Amino acid sequence: MTYAIRIHQTGGPEVLSWESVDLPAPGAGEATVRHAAVGLNFIDTYHRTGLYPLPMPSGIGLEGAGVVEAIGPGVTEVQVGDRVAYAGGPIGAYAEARNIPAHRLLKLPDAISFDTAAAMMLQGLTAAYLLRKTYRVQPGDAVLIHAAAGGVGLIACQWAKALGATVIGTVGSAAKGELAKAHGCDHVINYSTENFVSRVREITGGEGVPVVYDGVGKDTFMGSLDSLRPLGMLVTYGNASGPVPPLDLLLLSQKGSLFVTRPTIVSYTAKRADLEALGAELFDVVASGKVKIEVHQRYALKDAAQAHSDLEARKTTGSTILIP
Ligand SMILES: NC(=O)c1ccc[n+]([C@@H]2O[C@H](COP(=O)([O-])OP(=O)(O)OC[C@H]3O[C@@H](n4cnc5c(N)ncnc54)[C@H](OP(=O)(O)O)[C@@H]3O)[C@@H](O)[C@H]2O)c1
């Protein structure tokens, strides 16, 4: 027996329910992980509202860090007592302890605490594949990163800066702007009060950027296309303001032979070798201090509803963890 947050129907934060659940012995290929910390991510709100449908009833949450308590038959990746972390599923991280396929687990270096791991695995692996794989940032690139003071944003801005990019970040308030500036942004645009498209043109001498990383979605999508230089790439990787409506592909030709991609961490880490390689890059930039993981909010796991409300109300900055 253990406790977990469950959802029986989609809806507002109030549908998150703290319940006792069975925890069977791990099956073949599975490990039981006792969580020291669980990560909060915007995708959890999509699962809760039904934007990303789940079979009901369901657990929730995609990221955690803790200790392996037991392993099932055939597990080779981890041993009992290992410090581990994971991101990207299967769903059900909002739990004191859970069973999970062992091939999703990465062993944590001693330098990385459980809190840091829970705060960085999903957002950091996302920053890793966005900057290193989807569009590989080169020294001298000007890159536009939306929601620069958010979870993915603060990590991506520091990392892009460390790769030698000129980082342009958008934020929703002046205070968030200060934070983004302190974490790698060379230029900050408050998109609540300024037209980010004209500011990006101004900053890039009229040229536009080769890549936009856009986790905001509906509200920024068209402006993101208009911020690109010819042959540029819009990486639309989230829907914090709502999903992007269907796109007329002719727009991409009219606006300069543009590329648009809609990536997910699931595809980029589906193969164990890719998960390990991206994890190694992430552990390296964090352990070396190039990227600092900012845990700015902590909640008791059973208060996940409050955490969801604050995240959706744009009250959070950096990463948020839930403590069982
Ligand atoms: N595809 C993937 O693999 C993947 C993986 C991880 C995350 N994501 C996506 O990346 C984005 C960021 O995730 P995160 O967990 O790091 O969240 P986050 O950035 O910490 O929080 C979302 C931020 O989006 C901005 N935002 C703009 N319009 C908003 C609105 N109408 N409602 C709420 N927020 C709004 C807010 O910052 P401002 O106030 O500064 O505007 C807010 O703080 C999300 O869209 C998420 O789904 C995608």
TrEMBL record:
<dbReference type="InterPro" id="IPR013154">
    <property type="entry name" value="ADH-like_N"/>
</dbReference>
<dbReference type="InterPro" id="IPR013149">
    <property type="entry name" value="ADH-like_C"/>
</dbReference>
<dbReference type="InterPro" id="IPR011032">
    <property type="entry name" value="GroES-like_sf"/>
</dbReference>
<keyword id="KW-0560">Oxidoreductase</keyword>
<protein>
    <submittedName>
        <fullName>Quinone oxidoreductase</fullName>
    </submittedName>
</protein>
<dbReference type="InterPro" id="IPR047618">
    <property type="entry name" value="QOR-like"/>
</dbReference>
<dbReference type="GO" id="GO:0003960">
    <property type="term" value="F:quinone reductase (NADPH) activity"/>
</dbReference>
<dbReference type="InterPro" id="IPR036291">
    <property type="entry name" value="NAD(P)-bd_dom_sf"/>
</dbReference>
<dbReference type="InterPro" id="IPR002364">
    <property type="entry name" value="Quin_OxRdtase/zeta-crystal_CS"/>
</dbReference>
<keyword id="KW-0521">NADP</keyword>
<dbReference type="GO" id="GO:0035925">
    <property type="term" value="F:mRNA 3'-UTR AU-rich region binding"/>
</dbReference>
<dbReference type="GO" id="GO:0008270">
    <property type="term" value="F:zinc ion binding"/>
</dbReference>
<dbReference type="GO" id="GO:0005829">
    <property type="term" value="C:cytosol"/>
</dbReference>
<feature type="domain" description="Enoyl reductase (ER)">
    <location>
        <begin position="11"/>
        <end position="322"/>
    </location>
</feature>
<dbReference type="Pfam" id="PF08240">
    <property type="entry name" value="ADH_N"/>
</dbReference>
<dbReference type="Pfam" id="PF00107">
    <property type="entry name" value="ADH_zinc_N"/>
</dbReference>
<dbReference type="GO" id="GO:0070402">
    <property type="term" value="F:NADPH binding"/>
</dbReference>
<dbReference type="InterPro" id="IPR020843">
    <property type="entry name" value="ER"/>
</dbReference>
